[in-house]
Specification:
It is a single chain. By secondary structure, the protein is of the alpha/beta class. A six-stranded parallel beta sheet has the order 2-1-3-4-5-6, sandwiched between helices. The longest helix has 15 residues. It is globular. The N terminus is likely disordered.
Length: 231
Amino acid sequence: MMPPSPSHEPPGRTPIRVLLVDDHHIVRIGLRAVLAEDARIRIVGEASTAAAAMTEAVRLKPTVVLLDLRLPDRSGLEVCRQLKQHTPSPSVLCLTSFADDHTILAAIEAGADGYLLKEVDGPNIGDAIVTIARGGSVMDPRVTRSMIGVVRGGDGGLKEIRRKITLLSPQETRVLSTVARGKTNKEVAEILGLGEGTVRNYLATVFQKLGVSRRAEAVALWVRAQSHPEE
């Protein structure tokens, strides 16, 4: 384990505590170097295996776990699932080289709050960490395109998606469209003039009507419907 980086937090503001989990030492060095420049973030620890990740998560209580999905002893998906069973649970941002449909959907099912490919620019990683720490969700654009392909299912699938979208009330539609822009519940509340609790209630109803259980799944359906409005 490398010692935590020195704190670079702005005065009066507590930085987001991040645990790095990747089996490649050079990758962790690179991530630490990039994120050390971000005053909003503090790296509190590292792990190279699933077992070490769980131990460090319990010990350090990070706000966000930056997680590689390919670990030597166990799948990162299992780590994500276990982390999400903790109370309180950290936000989990998957950072991986793999964008296959099965892995993406499995990560969503495991409770991941974000999914980025390792080709992402350094500053974007910092922004993604801040977004999910605030309750939002982040999906790499290439991942979003892949998810749209999964939910597409031909014309019949598109018609069914549209049918579900029409079940939403005007306010539910506004909430979902704002969430699809990557906004957190707090930001949605501010934009629409609602309380955060009200936004959560709207989203629960949206999920039920669309037949999904995750923000990313709802966003994928919305983007699919909006990307091909005339089909």
